[in-house]
Amino acid sequence: MDEEYDVIVLGTGLKECILSGLLSVDGLKVLHMDRNDYYGGESTSLNLIQLWKKFRGNDKPPAHLGPSRDYNVDMVPKFIMANGILVRTLIHTDVTKYLSFKAVDGSYVFNKGKIHKVPATDVEALKSPLMGLFEKRRARSFFIYVQNYDENDPSTHQGLDLTRITSRELISKYGLDDNTVDFIGHAVALHRDDRYLNEPALDTVKRMKLYSESVLRFQGGSPYIYPLYGLGELPQGFARLSAVYGGTYMLNKPECKVEFDMEGKVCGVTSEGETAKCMKVVCDPSYLPNKVRKVGKVARAIAIMSHPIPNTNESHSVQLILPQKQLGRKSDMYVFCCSYSHNVAPKGKYIAFVSAKAETDNLEMELKPGIDLLGPIDELFFDSYDRFEPVNEPSLDNCFISTILSILASFASGHSSFS
C-alpha cells in the first residue's frame, strides 16, 4: 500500500465506482478503498437475511417469503433514464458487458386522488383522463414546441429565449391548467418540487426532451430501465472496469484517514499503519465528516408484497410519482416497485419502496399517502438516512466529496475536475 497514486477513491458507492472506472480509463493510477467488506456502500443491495438483520435484528426471516438468495433489495432505489447520461456512460465504457438491463413497465402519476399512467405515446395522450379534450389540444401544442426545440437552431425557438424566461412564463403562453402543469413538471420533467416554475425554462424543456427520447429508445411503456439483480450490480460493473485499466481495490480497510500537508492539501490516506500517497481524493461524506454539512433527511419505507401495485395495469415494475401539490407537501413523494421480473425477488413477490424528503419527525405518518396505494403488504420496514453536501473548496484541498444519492438524483459521469 505504501505507493503513490494519482487519485485515491474512498467508498464503493455508485458515484465513487463510476469515477474510479472513468479515471482509470483516462490512464490515471487509482487506488480504491472501502472500510466495508462489500461493494455498494449506501447503495448496496441486500438479500433477505441481510435485510432481516438490518431491520429486525435477527437472521431468521419467515419461510413463506421464499429463499433469501432470490432477494436483491436496493438500499437507495432508483430507475435509470434510458437515454440519460449514465446509460451513455455505460455504453461508452463498455460496462454493459457486465450487466443486463430490462425496461420498466410503466410510469404513473398521482392526480386528484387517483393513479394515472403518464402517456408514453400520442395515442395514450389522447385517451388519458389526465386532461380534458380542449386541454389536450393545448398540451399537444406545447409538446410539439418542446419536441421541435433545438438549442442551437434559433428558428425552433419561436422568438423565446429559454435562458431568460421562466418555466411558468413559457407554460402560461400555452394556457395549460394547474393539473396539467403539475403532471408535466413532476412526472415528465421529473422536478422534485415547484421551484422550477420560477427558474429558466431551458432546463425543463431539456428534461422533457430526455423523457421523450428515453421512452422512444426501448419502445417501452416508460422512459426507465433497471438492471437485473438490482442496482448493486452497477458499482461492481464500474469496479471491474477500473480493475481492467489498472485500478487497485482494497476492501475491508478500517479507519481510512485522509492526510493533509502543511498547506491543507490532501497528500495521502492511512489505514492499518500504512500510508498511500496521492494528489487527489474522491470520497463519500462519511470519510470527511468535517468537510460536509447535513442538508436534510430521506424517509423510506420498504414493502414486500405478493401482488403488483393496484391500478397500474398489473405492472411488474413501475414508477409512481406523487407531486407535492397533490399531498400538500414541499416536495414530491416517490413509489418504486420491481419484482421477480427483474430478478430482485422470488417468483410472485414484489418489492415496493416509498421515498420522500423528510419534512417531519414522524416518518411513518409522512409516508402513509404512498404506503396506502400499495394494497396488502407482507412485510414493511422503515428507514431514513441523512443527506449531506460538501462545504470544502476542492481547488484548495484537492478533496472531491460526492453527495449521498438522493431520491431521484442524476448520476454523475463527468470528471473534468481531474483533467
From TrEMBL:
InterPro entries attached to this UniProt entry: FAD/NAD-bd_sf, GDP_dissociation_inhibitor, RabGDI
Transmembrane domains' residue ranges: none
A GO biological process held by the record: protein transport
Gene3D superfamilies: FAD/NAD(P)-binding domain, Guanine Nucleotide Dissociation Inhibitor, domain 1, Guanine Nucleotide Dissociation Inhibitor, domain 2
A UniProt-annotated Pfam family: GDI
GO (cellular component) term, any one: cytoplasm
Any one GO molecular-function label of the UniProt entry: Rab GDP-dissociation inhibitor activity
PANTHER family given in the database record: RAB GDP DISSOCIATION INHIBITOR, RAB GDP-DISSOCIATION INHIBITOR
Annotated family: Belongs to the Rab GDI family.
Protein's recorded name: Guanosine nucleotide diphosphate dissociation inhibitor
